[in-house]
Write a structure and sequence with these properties.
single chain; about 160 residues; mainly alpha
């Protein structure tokens, strides 16, 4: 039973992610994530990365936080929750992982910012896509360029 396991993990941590054992934090985060609540796992993964001496495991935790941020951000955007989408995309951008999803995340963030009427910030997000793809050959850089042309009326 997942709920019962979470209860035991929380007791073992003393309900404090700041004082927890890194290995226990990672296991708790993984359990929460596997229970379909990856956003709830982010604080545990974040605490783990701050406390862990294992570079590989910290990289995995950042990867999982970033993937969650993008996936859940896209779901929020689709549901019309643009402000929540921006918050979730920011998780991915804050951890900088997975690197191959950063262009997409900046683009999606720009679209959510546009939905909120925050045009200047959206332009900055679209420009960041182009910075990550200087060749301009990815689908995301092409879409970002189109958006910038629309917004800035640049030929």
């Amino acid at each position: 039973d997942v709920d019962r396991a979470l209860e035991f993990y929380n007791r073992a941590l003393g309900r404090s992610t700041e004082l927890g054992n890194p290995a226990l934090l990672f296991e708790l985060a993984s359990l929460i994530e596997q229970n379909g609540k990856c956003v709830d796992a982010v604080p545990y993964f974040r605490s783990f990365t701050e406390q862990s001496s294992s570079r590989d495991s910290a990289t995995e935790a950042r990867w999982r936080m970033g993937t969650c941020g993008l996936e859940r951000g896209r779901q929020a955007a689709t549901a019309g929750e643009a402000a929540r989408a921006v918050q979730l995309f920011d998780i991915t951008l804050e951890v900088g992982a997975p690197p191959h999803l950063l262009e997409q995340t900046w683009l999606e963030r720009g679209e959510a910012l546009l939905a909120l009427g925050r045009t200047e910030e959206a332009v900055a997000s679209f420009e960041r896509v182009l910075e990550l793809s200087p060749e301009g050959r990815t689908q995301y850089s092409v879409r970002a360029q189109r958006r910038l042309q629309e917004l800035l009326m640049v030929p």
